[in-house]
Amino acid sequence: MQPAEGVMKRFGLVSIVLPAALVLGLAVAGWFWGRPAWRGYQEQRSLAQARKFVDRQDFRSASLSLRSALLANPENLEACRLMAELADEAGSPQALDWFRRLVERSPTPEHQLRLAAAGLRYESPPFRQTAEVLEQLRPATSNQASFHVLSAELALKQKRPAGAIAGFATAASLEPSNPWHRLNLAALNLQSADARIAAEARSTLDTLSTQDGVGPAALRWLVVDWRRSMGADAALPYSQRLVAAPEATLEDRLQHLELLGSGPDAAPFLVETQRRAAEEPTQILRMVSWMLNHGFTNQAAAWLSELAPEMRDQQPVRMARVSCLVASCDWAGLENELEGAAWGEWDFMRLAFLSRAASGQNQAQATELRWRQAVREAGERPGPVASLVNLALTWERREAAEQLLRQMARRPAVERWALGELDRLYADSGNTRELHRIHSRLIELDPGNVVARNNYAATSLLLGLDLERACEMARQLRSEHPEDPVIASTYAFSLHLQGCTAEGLTALEGLPAEVLEQPGLALYYGVLLSATGQTNQVDRYLALASSASLLPEERLLLERASHR
């Protein structure tokens, strides 16, 4: 009996151990195979929620759901596309990064065209990355009107009107039934020095002004044209037709008010415009901004006090009241308006204006304390931080704006955005050394960044820093992008500094004549012409260059070339 009992015990042990091992095995299998399934469920659930939030126009919640979907699957194409569209809808520069990610995941012509369109909205001049995308797309999309429209818009951004006219003309030939292409072409030709072409453009716009869809846009161009060429009285009949159209915007009505001036029709039209604007909080803010800019500060404050109660606590209306108090320098009133108020996600603005109120009352410590609180409240959100930067610059607190951007540039999540803003800030102030430092860092973050590489080379050449590397970089860029005029000017200047001025001139003279007449490029062409003694052409190009926004070192080049 004992052996049998021993056997029974041994089997009993096995009967207990096997189920435990089975459970452990199932748990491990569940971790390996169930985890991806759970992530897939989370991904699809978050994406479905995001679509619902978008339908309800709850974009903040939609963004959170999309981020959850991308956390589960960073390659989710639809989530990436929706993130790009949400950022674009909000006017956020982050849209450009999201469209880039979309193209990386799915480089279709459609996605690349959308990236180019975003580049035109958010990229800094001279829009080189957008130009690259369009150049790569040319073979596959040269038969699409949308490609030529974007090419025309790029030409406009780069101040190449001839290229814009050619682009819209090609789009019109590809889609002759689309009136928008004809409208864009006519709008450009309005400014032609050829009276016959300008007259034809006005005739085209007159015809289009009676068509559904494009009519209001055609009238807007006619108002601008007649106001510029003949004055307010000539533009008024077109403006009257425009404001009578159902599609008329608040901007159209505000322009009409300017045309009416102090005439007898101005006061009743102002009252009617206010009545229409009172229906929408954002239009209330725009209406007040216009009134403040035109000297109606007291009237704006009085109008705001008469608004319906349900409108007064809307955030844009609060901002309108704050704007009135700032315009009237009522710093104590501004403080009373803001102290203890609840602005929710806009609290960073409330704190910033409290800082301005303290500054207006010469309270230096409170000014600094409240500003730091505003910065802390804004966090790392590019939109709020950009708003604070703009406020600081408006209030002539440049050091605060620069310090804020430098602080953001130390945070990986927003470093590139902050460096881009610093780039613009230093370009405006002519701080070439800081620009050089910014471009160096941008190259570290993205060695393939064409804009940063060219700017680094250009600032190095101007400052006389690391010339060997700068000249080699300019040569490489020229080899990679032989058609880019800005890169050509950097390369030509590098050759000039190496004693090869004739070769530099050859590089520039390969560009179209109208491109060489762009002020920024005209400077370098004029400098090289002067260095080779071609004085018969120098004055013309240096005169063009004098109208450009130049860095101090470029201004010095201009002065030296002018006195040769």
Structure characterization notes:
With 564 residues, this protein is mainly α. Among the domains are: 16-73; 75-149, Serine Threonine Protein Phosphatase 5, Tetratricopeptide repeat; 178-277, Serine Threonine Protein Phosphatase 5, Tetratricopeptide repeat; 442-564, Serine Threonine Protein Phosphatase 5, Tetratricopeptide repeat. 79% of the residues lie in helices and 0% in strands. It has 33 helices and no strands. Helix 13 (250-260) runs antiparallel to helix 14. The longest helix has 54 residues, at 2-55. It is globular and about 70 Å long. The termini are far apart.
How would you summarize what this structure contains?
With 564 residues, the protein is mainly alpha-helical. It has 33 helices and no strands. The longest helix has 54 residues.
User: Can you tell me the CATH topology of the domain at 442-564?
Assistant: Serine Threonine Protein Phosphatase 5, Tetratricopeptide repeat
Structural class: mainly alpha
Strand content: under 5%
* Architecture per CATH nomenclature, i.e. the level-2 architecture of the domain at 442-564: Alpha Horseshoe
Q: Can you give keywords for this protein?
A:
564 residues, Serine Threonine Protein Phosphatase 5, Tetratricopeptide repeat, disordered N terminus, mainly alpha, globular
Task: Furnish the topology, listing elements before pairings.
Layout: H1 2-55, H2 59-72, H3 77-89, H4 94-105, H5 109-122, H6 128-141, H7 145-157, H8 161-174, H9 179-189, H10 195-208, H11 215-230, H12 232-244, H13 250-260, H14 266-277, H15 281-293, H16 297-305, H17 309-312, H18 315-327, H19 331-338, H20 347-360, H21 364-378, H22 382-394, H23 398-408, H24 415-429, H25 432-445, H26 450-463, H27 467-480, H28 485-497, H29 501-509, H30 513-516, H31 519-531, H32 535-545, H33 552-562
Helix pairs in contact: 1-2, 2-3, 3-4, 4-5, 5-6, 5-7, 6-7, 7-8, 8-9, 9-10, 10-11, 11-12, 12-13, 13-14, 15-16, 15-18, 16-18, 19-20, 20-21, 22-23, 23-24, 24-25, 25-26, 26-27, 26-28, 27-28, 28-29, 28-31, 29-31, 31-32, 31-33
